[in-house]
Amino acid sequence: MSGRREFGDYQTPLDFADRVCRYLKYERGIKPSAVVEPTCGLGSFLQSSLLFDAREYYGIEINPEYCRICKKTIQDERVQIINSDFFAFSTKALIKDCSQILVIGNPPWVTNSTLSLLGSGNLPVKVNFKGIKGIAAITGAGNFDICEYMILQMVHEYRNTNAVIAMLCKTSVARNVFRELKRNHINFESCDVLEFDSLKVFGVNTSACILIIQLSEKNISSDTCDVYDFDDTQKIKMRFGFLEGRFYSSLNSPKTNFDGKCCFEWRQGVKHDCSKIMELTVKEGKLQNGKKENIKIEDNILFPLVKSSMFKAPVIHSFTKYVIVTQRKVREETGHLKYDAPKTWNYLNENLEFFENRKSSIYRGAPPFSMFGVGEYAYSQYKVGVSGFYKRPLFSVLYSDDNKPVMTDDTSYFICFDKYDMAYVAMLILNSVKVQEFLKSIAFLDAKRPFTKKVLERIDFHKIVRSLTVEELAETERFLNLTGYITDTRYEEFKTVVMAGQMSFL
User: Fold this and answer.
1) Exposure string (b/e) for 429-456, b if CB count within 10 Å is 16 or more?
2) What stretches in the chain show pLDDT beneath 70?
3) What's the predicted TM-score (pTM) here?
4) Whose CA is closest to 426, among 454, 484, 468?
């Protein structure tokens, strides 16, 4: 297959490429002997980079039509356009004068999973290049931007040189690349981000930047990355990076630092990839699935559901959305449903094609109608949950008036409790001003999912309860328009349990 989406194809406008190259030459003082554009497309950056007057120029492009256009557009004997797959090609081997290399470009803005779904052949060899372990690698953490992969491949190819890598990418990719530089002990003098308006330049509404990495032959690296606005390159907008070995989205740290290890286990909600069949809505007293069909099934495997978009109140205890939960633990056999819940079993089998069409590899070899995100913890009576998507996280106590466990979807996270009072205090703590400020310092609010399990695991309740007063929790209660419920006794009970390490449902 071919097409813009398959190749993550957002061609750089020539005027923007000109602006980037002028910045690199006149404000950064870059004087390359050789210029490489790994995915040159229609050749905007190659054309603009002629102002450097380098001795050698190389453009690599998989699309033969783009190669033909490049050769016609750029009439310069120093420029070589090579029709090849980036993933199977070494650019460094081409260069004769390595005194100063500039690698510049705009790699595809698309993920490996998207290309796989499109049936694209424009993919790197499938490797777990970040070393992600276990189920996380299978369920999505191993998904990555092709752009990120390409930039890191260039970094590794030119490591231990003084090459400059200047790439357009999403800001989330830039941050990931910076972290990988540190994780892989790459020598670099600086790593800077210049944010620009991608809607204006590409017609794409996403947070984007120019990532500029100055590699080094010396054994040096920086713990911080400076962020600028491309419209004001003289002033540092913000700075992110590492402080005492911990990664912060903003090094303008909050007054109170609650960074550490969470004493509660943050869990992710149920994953089934079959919402039309598994998720039901109560309408006029009847259960309706995503196909607008009214159905009748057993109540014992039907549970209240809070999806990410539903975290809009600090206490949620009544529901119109429900989910069928077929297992109590991952990969548990489901055949017993034929006898224990025959109506549900028949309903699921009537819609078997929906389950067979699930794309994720996690369902391969699993029992029929399998789910993930299930375990004894999922059946706890009280939870404090949060959407991974909201820019300002609202933590909510989740429980059902009929004492049924409440489930969340897999874009939500929660901790479990066996007492309402404990869950309520935890909710107030997490919504307090100090904790919210701390969370902003470790989460990137422009990310698609700012609040992930990795972010939430850094909330150290031991530090919090030593700092936060009951008066501050009462103020949080008022801010959330809750009736006064917090007391010294309830807070002291919570603190005692936390400090003694007596948490349940871990």
Assistant:
1) bbbbebbbebbbbbbbebbebbbbeebb
2) 1-9, 110-144, 253-255, 502-506
3) 0.82
4) 468
